[in-house]
Specification:
By secondary structure, this protein is an alpha/beta fold. It has two domains: 207 residues, Glycogen Phosphorylase B (Rossmann fold, 3-Layer(aba) Sandwich), CATH 3.40.50; 162 residues, Rossmann fold (3-Layer(aba) Sandwich). Helices cover 48% and strands 14% of the residues. The protein is built from 18 helices and 13 strands. Strands 3-2-1-4-5-6-7 form a seven-stranded parallel beta sheet, with helices on both faces. Helix 2 links the parallel strand 2 and strand 3. Helix 3 packs across helix 4. The protein starts with a strand and ends with a helix. Uridine-diphosphate-N-acetylglucosamine binds next to helix 1, helix 5 and helix 11. The site of uridine-5'-diphosphate has 14 residues, from helix 1, helix 13 and helix 14.
């Protein structure tokens, strides 16, 4: 029996953790899963809504950390997570993605000698101004098992000198949630409630600090949106960071002036999947949405200069447009004028809805090869590392 703590903290973690916890519950003779929610995201629409929509059990432990500076938030998560690990003595801790909760919890484990698996390992934007890139690089250096979504990630890790035995290509677990929840999402009334017509609107999401905390970049994006909104309505579920920055940067009037731009609160997973799957075009700076649009075959214009998910450009429907208004408008109009041909769509290898099963297999295999696994080893490792 493997006791595993699964860590979730922010919106893009929930759809990655849900299939893993569900797979462990199906294999209850072999796995004892626990779910720890750090509380990095805490609004109903950024957290609770996902537990409901993804039919996830309530967290076993809620750390209630909330928002703060990077150092304060990371440190607070570490301080709150350490006693949980010491008490539970898990065989493994699973962290996902690239948020502050991911790095904070991985660091706690490595210092206690507890094995950590990183799901979505190896992605690199090569942009070290992104907080997520630092979280990815550091988490991958210290985790024991690196579970990658695509083979470019394996190559990145090998290029950083990480031994092949720590790396396992398992595919994209986010797509497990997408494929399993899409039929339920189609029952949502979100699109009808907003008065939108299938394939006659665009979806926008925006939350990267490089776009929304920088007034110059934000204004350039707004210029492009004014132009695109003349062609079709754009629904914009605005992230709380973005709402706050629109207000702080004095951009409210400029945003409200754009006819056809419908700013709404963030929506739950099922409502969002319905909006996304019916969109004619998606504009985003999100990581996960670049992947979801690739699988759904929807043109995606990414409002960033780089991506840690190049496979979505090489095989999928993604175009990097940066924040130059001319580039954004041109990429958007190209997407609108040339909708992808369904027969030409390509889905990256192992984005097939079965990644959670492969993650469990990788954990089992890695546990068998490491000697002295089990709670005695874990307890002695923890006690030798705790300084009183
Ligand atoms: C975080 C992740 C980012 C991820 C994004 C997904 C880090 C460094 N960043 O960015 O990688 O793409 O989540 O959404 O981990 N806020 C609320 N309510 C909430 C959550 C946040 O109002 O429930 C507001 C607060 O003002 C907070 C701000 O949003 O200060 C930023 O939240 P934070 O979690 O620090 O970063 P995100 O921008 O959400
Ligand atoms: N998402 C959602 N509601 C929204 C916006 C996004 O359910 O209003 C989902 C989206 O489908 C994807 C995930 O949230 O599964 C992406 O999270 P986000 O963009 O916040 O983070 P990132 O992927 O950039 O780290």
């Amino acid at each position: 029996m493997l006791k595993v703590i699964n860590v979730a903290g922010a919106r893009p973690n929930f759809m990655k953790v849900a299939p893993i916890v569900a797979a462990m519950k199906r294999r209850h003779a072999e796995f004892q899963p626990l779910l720890v929610h750090t509380g990095q995201h805490y609004d109903e629409a950024m957290s609770e809504a996902f537990f409901r929509d993804l039919e996830m059990p309530a967290p076993d432990v809620y750390l209630g950390i909330g928002s703060a500076s990077h150092a304060e938030q990371t440190a607070a998560i570490m301080q709150a997570f350490e006693p949980v690990v010491v008490k539970e003595k898990p065989d493994w801790v699973i962290v996902v993605g690239d948020v502050n909760s991911t790095l904070a919890c991985a660091l706690v484990c490595v210092k206690l000698g507890i094995k950590v698996a990183h799901v979505e390992a190896g992605l690199r934007s090569r942009d070290r101004t992104m907080p997520e890139e630092i979280n990815r690089l550091l988490t991958d250096q210290i985790a024991d098992l690196l579970l990658t979504p695509s083979e470019d990630a394996d190559a990145n890790l090998r290029g950083e000198g990480i031994p092949a035995e720590r790396i396992r290509f398992v595919g994209n677990v986010m797509i497990d949630s997408l494929l399993s929840q899409l039929p339920r999402a189609q029952q949502s009334s979100a699109r009808a409630n907003l008065g939108l017509v299938d394939k006659e609107y665009a979806v926008l999401t925006l939350h990267r600090p490089s776009n929304v905390d920088d007034p110059t970049a934000f204004v350039r994006v707004i210029e492009a949106l004014s132009e695109i909104a003349r062609r079709l309505p754009i629904v914009f579920p605005a992230h709380p960071r973005t709402r706050k920055m629109i207000d702080e940067l004095g951009l409210t009037a400029r945003v409200e002036k754009i006819k056809g731009l419908l700013v709404i609160d963030p929506v739950g997973y099922l409502d969002f999947l319905q909006l996304l799957s019916g969109a004619r075009l998606v504009l985003t700076d999100s990581g996960g949405i670049q992947e979801e649009t690739t699988v759904l075959g929807i043109p995606c214009v990414t409002l960033r200069e780089n991506t840690e998910r190049p496979i979505t450009v090489e095989m999928g429907t993604n175009t990097l447009a940066g924040t130059d208004p001319g580039n954004i408008v041109a990429a958007a109009f190209r997407g609108l004028n040339n909708p992808p041909n369904a027969s030409a769509l390509r889905i990256p290898p192992l984005w097939d809805g079965h990644t959670a099963d492969r993650i469990l297999e990788a954990l089992v295999a890695k546990s068998e090869v490491s000697t002295g696994s089990g709670s005695d080893r874990v307890a002695s490792s923890i006690s030798s590392r705790l300084v009183r």
